[in-house]
Amino acid sequence: MTEQDNAHQGHRQRLKERFDEYGLDSFNDLNVLELLLYYALPRKDTNVLAHALLERFGSLEAVLEAEAEELSSVPGMGETAGRLLRLIPAVSRRYLLRKGTVSHAINTPEEAGEYLLPHFLYAREELVYALFLDSRSRVISCEELNRGVVNAAEIGVRALVTRAMELKASSVILAHNHPSGVALPSTEDESVSLRLRQALHLVGVSLSDHIIIAGSEFLSMSEVGIL
Fold it and tell me: Facing residues of 146 across strands?
């Protein structure tokens, strides 16, 4: 083993020990990537690669959200290392979804937003979800309705009404995201919401809210007086 290899091994060991003692809050983004990449590239100096990834994508979040083809364009990034990085957001999303499963009632826009946020983590396209609630506002089911353009035709008014009836839901909370925008409803969002509310009302189901999500922020259309 060369002197350089010994230095790398020592640096790795110090990072591991620091994580064990202080956790990830003591790390900058470069150190986080270094530590992660150790487990895919056990014999390489991952400092150079971590620098290259941050320079290419601009932030740790962008690195972890990059597609496989984008990651492979960075010299030194093999298939195994790319798969490991892409696993992080996927596992995080599943963990938050499972952890966020609730049996208690959702009574406020804040509770609805917090419940729905993990469903939109790392999404690059528009997603539409419906949260079906019983007469006590407890969650019956949370289901993806559509990917792509958010309009009443694409969501499928009849499909939403039918599903609400199948589940014997008393109310529905709709949610969709603005992947590259802000959490503010558009004119189309308002018109879609009103059309869906009317259709659900005809079968005795209320549309109690429509949550707009952008990143980690959300807005309740009922809270701002649109619904």
Answer: 128
Tally the domains of the chain.
Answer: 2
Report the candidate in 144, 150, 179 with the shortest Cα–Cα distance to residue 163: 144
80, 121: one domain: no
Between 70 and 25, residue with greater pLDDT: 70
Q: What is the pLDDT of residues 140-154, one digit of tens each?
A: 989 988 877 555 445
Question: Any idea what the CATH number is for the domain that residue 27 is in?
Answer: 1.10.150.20
Tell me the whole-structure pTM to 2 decimals: 0.63
Q: For 143, how many CA atoms within 13 A lie in the half-sphere containing its CB?
A: 13
C-alpha 92, offset from chain centre = 9
Residue 158 three-state SS:
helix
Give the closest residue to 120 by CA, choosing from 29, 213, 53: 213
**Two tokens at 45?**
């100096």
Clarify whether residues 143 and 182 are in a common domain: yes
Six-digit token pair at 153?
A: 């035709």
Tell me, what CATH number does 189's domain have?
3.40.140.10
